[in-house]
Design a protein that fits this description.
This protein is an alpha+beta fold. The chain has seven helices and 13 strands. The chain is elongated.
Length: about 230
Amino acid sequence: MRLDKLLSNMGYGSRKEVKQLLKMKAVSVDGVIVKDVSLHVDPEKQNVTVLGERVHYQEFIYLMMNKPAGVISATEDLHDQTVIDLLDPFHAHFEPFPVGRLDKDTEGFLLITNDGVLAHNLLSPKKHVPKVYYAKIDGRVTEEDIEAFNHGVILDDGYHTKPGKLTILKSGETSEIELMISEGKFHQVKRMFESVGKKVTYLKRLSMGNLQLDENLKLGEYRELSSNEIENIK
């Protein structure tokens, strides 16, 4: 990899700014100061430093965010704040994107990465990756709803959903539930409850695959996945 591309990718500035670093004799490779921006280096095997600080090359990033309501799951938008707007400049420069979408008013687990292969696998209908949601429902959720969801329900456009596992946490005028589904149609959880005559008033995603939302993350906060979590999600 060209030295200027490596340093630019790792957040040390634009190609022009990196060139200035080399002119300042701030960059060394294996202990030798270098000035040639086109020099090819192997960041896995060679010791590249900027102002004495080792450059640790990273191709992909994997972030877990506790998405707040009011923020949209997109990379950019002309009107609303996006989940990418919540990232610090270092993570944003990797040009990551949200894996799937959470509605604007939905909170909870959101995976953000620049690994396109992983994103495709997680979103592929053939993979049947489970997603678990917590919701508050206007209306009494019943055993009949559990049975209906277990067989799949008919949405407003005629689509017959795959089976969903509905668990009642509290049943009353306002009910609380958990729902596990393995697909992600537009507004699916809300539309599934509409099909049985009930309305979702609050929705939060708790997990995706075998990754659960970190309870220590406040709304709008995020963190990098651990190496074990990355292996698990892959």
